[in-house]
Structure formats: structure tokens, C-alpha cells
Amino acid sequence: MFIARQPIFNRMLNVYGYELLFRAGHESKAYDGTSDVQSTATIISGLFESGIEEFVENKRAFVNFDANFIHMDFAELIEPSQLVVEVLETVNADQNLIERLEYMKSKGYKIALDDFAGPYKDDPLIHLADIIKFDMVATPLGTIQSDVKLALNHGKILLAEKVETEAEFQVAKEMGFHLFQGYFFSKPNIIGKSVDKTTTKIQYLRLLTELKKIEPSYQILAEIIEKDIKLAYRLMKVISTRAGDDLVYSIKRALTYMGLKEIERWVSIMMLRDFSEHKPEELMRLALVRTKFSELIAKNGHMRKIKHEASMMGLFSTIDAMLDQSMSEALEGISLPKSVSDALTLNQGILAPVYNVIQNYEHGEWPTAEVLGQHLGITGGDLSVNYRESLIWAREITAMIYD
Length: 403
Known about the structure:
elongated, alpha/beta, 19 helices
């Protein structure tokens, strides 16, 4: 089973829920009758068996439902407070389907109309809809103003889908949209005023520079960290979760306990956490998912020897959005392997295919992700397992660094 998630934000850029993109197996390249039912059944049963929190944490799961699946009772395996039923635009709204949706709504499930094209007043399901999703590509904002006004007057929650730029987000927000889906949050707002993070960057660069030396000094690293109470606290907190009953009496001892490679990962994570202070938390979470996903792809494929570099590439893949700079400007002064900077700035080099696998997987472009993965020595099934492991790992790390 292939599964990926895309965040859905509210107006404050806090995550409201995740749309789950999925495909049941290798043979299912796109949605078609039987594969629709099979795919949705697989995802719902998977959510029930493994726990929905694994995929969406404490948020809502948005899942596509075709007509056949709406009439089945799989959805009721998931608590109404955790599931949004997305009715596909291809559904034929006959009386039986309307009655079934009315029943689900009476049980507390939220109903969303996917890729709504209107007209609003003529849609037979509009009275059942809690959420209406407008595709910004198929129905540009300028063409739906009258439907948006009607929907707002009727108290509907409006979701703008495929929002790809900050400008689109702002226009949709001004029109009255409540929810937003797309990768706009992971792109730099170059024309905007970025927060000055020069001091923070210099502080972390001192640590990274020391770590890149042939023989890094634990004493020098400890002295740098001890001058920053927040960083020292976070480091000791991380070590405490790993040391168990062993007491760690000093920063230097904590560093030797971790080891140099792990120190470098944690310093990088703490740096990006500070860089993303005025950005959606989901941006940092995306970087964490990517760093683990990249590492696992490399480790389980043909790139075991450079799994650390792959991990760093994933971790730094959103730094341009964090700093509102071009990627080359954002990476300036950060001592990263050439393979990492080439992949992020030029989409070239040995790590570029790993980055392309990740991006295609995130967007649900399964066939492309599979083909690219095969070239790296990793199967589609392994990609799915690795992505799931990455979500779990990212959730655990997020809890540590934001607590």
C-alpha cells in the first residue's frame, strides 16, 4: 500500500488535517471503479489496524470516497471526529447516495465536496456539505467569486486546494477561504521581509564548522553550547531520553555519549528549528520527515555509504522557505557536502534522484517515484514502509524539540 499525506492549513497556518493520498498496489496506476474501492478499503482498514494517529497524529484525515465506497460501512471504523469524507466529483448523487450521506452526517462525520466546480445553487449535495474544496487550477479564484459568496453566506467551510504560492494564499484568504492545501508553505517568500537570523546562523555555524574538522574537539563543542542556555537545555533533554537511568553530568559527557554524526544531525535540527520560529510548524515537520526518508532510501538502496549525506539533504531541503531566501543564499556559509548542495540548488549530482523520489512520493506520483526508486535499488513497497517509519520518527522528534 502506498500512502502519503498533504497538510491542510487554517488561516493561521496551523495544521487542520491531512489529506491522505493512497494507492492499493503496483497494478493500480490511477483511480478507476474497482481500484477506487480497493484503495479506499485498504487505507481505511490500514488506518484502523495501525492507528490513525500514526498518519495524521491528532488531526483529521481527509479521505476520498467514491459512490461504491460511500455505501459500505468501512468508514465507520474511524471515529467521526477524526475523519472527513471527501465525496469525489465523479459521484452520481442519486437518492440512495444522498440518504447514505445524511446517515453518515447524522453520526458526526464531516462531508467535503472534492474539486467542486459548481454552480453552487444547482448542486444536489450542497446542503450536506460541511466543507467545499475548490481546485485553484481547475477553478481559478477569479471565476468562482459568486459561488464563494453564496457558500460563505450559508456557513460553509471553504478549502482552497493546489495553492502553490504565498500570493495565492493571501488572495484566497482575503476572499474568505478558511482552509488551504498545497506546497505554498514550503517555498520562500523572496519579496517578503525575512526575519533577521544572522546571529542565530553564526552561532550554529561555529558548531558545524568544528564538526567538519578532521578531528573535532568535544571540549570546544561543549564550550560553544554552554554559552547558549536554550541549546544546552535541548541537548540535555535529548540525551536524557536516550541515556535511560544513566546520569549525564556535563555537556561534554553528553556530547561524547551521542557521537559526532549524531551531534551534527542534532545541531542541524536545532538550527532549523530556530530558523523556522516564525514559520508554520509543519515546515519543520516536513524537513524531519524528509531527513529520515532520505536516510532510509539511501540505507536500504545502493547508497548506504552516503546515508548521512542523504539525511542532511532532506533536512536542509526547506531551509530556503525558512529564511525566505534562494536555496543558494540560504546554504551560504553552511559547510555541507557538495553532493547535498548540488542536489538542493541545481537538482544535480548523486543525491538528486533521492530528492526527486521524495518529492514525487509526497505528491502521490507513485509510478514516477517507483521508477526512480528502482534505479536506487529500492522497491515501491520499501518506499511505503520507509515513509511510514519517517512519519513516526518525525512525530517523536517534533515532540522533543517543540515541548
